[in-house]
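To assess whether the prediction recovers the assembly geometry, we first specified each molecular entity separately, as shown.
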Amino acid sequence: MRIGEVAQRAGVSVRALRYYEEQDLLQASRSPGGHRHYPDTAVGRVQLIQQLYAAGLPSRVVRQVLPCVDSGEAPPKLLDQLEAERVRVEQRITDLLTVRDRLDGVIANTRNPSAECFHGQ
Amino acid sequence: MRIGEVAQRAGVSVRALRYYEEQDLLQASRSPGGHRHYPDTAVGRVQLIQQLYAAGLPSRVVRQVLPCVDSGEAPPKLLDQLEAERVRVEQRITDLLTVRDRLDGVIANTRNPSAECFHGQ
DNA sequence: CTAAAACCTGACGTCGGTGTCAGATGCAAG
DNA sequence: CTTGCATCTGACACCGACGTCAGGTTTTAG
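The predicted structure of the complete assembly is given in tokenized form:
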């Protein structure tokens, strides 16, 4: 599978895939002429990478985490790192929940201004 | 209250506060000599701004959302915008939950490798 | 065989929220 | 009045995940 097709299937740009390779997140074999060639599993991997990015993990962390998610286990040395990331993710989740509730409050109150106005934080 | 104290209390840098003013997120009166002076409510407002940033909202959106969160209601014209943001936030939450569960899976499996290896997505 | 489409490697641009530095002032304490 | 910290206004630096352009090569369709 060539880079264009992977990009299209995974919903990312060709540039992004090259960047992932540069960051050692995604490997590709090469044709005699130098063109990248990917296995079918690449699409799923790219989507996984996107998910981790969406969670706010930077490349260097993704690089560590990826093989663990693949294999389902981690070298003990990375456990602390993983747990630290878990904590961060959890924190972001609670932040987002708070913001969501605030937005909900404003929306509901605007739709139905009769209700009591809670301005608590 | 002067800028240094606000920064310290809110846990952000002085630079950030100036930036917020530049972005019309936070107003300050000025002393005769030009120094910023903030009301006590500024600290809470800054924390709110931080929360919105943490949720991934960019400055221009925060600028629209802030007065609504203050007043508890929004001009109807902004309702669509607010709901769009709500959807985005919700999406990010589910992304984060997925990632969290993946991390949990790896962590649990590493701690107790005996268990069955679920590699579901 | 040839033209077009896809791909290649650099390299520089972008955007947003800050850090940081320079050089000039304001303000409070002795 | 002076000293010294806080603050002021620019302005440039940074980082990360790409976008984008240039100029050249490979692959594929006809």
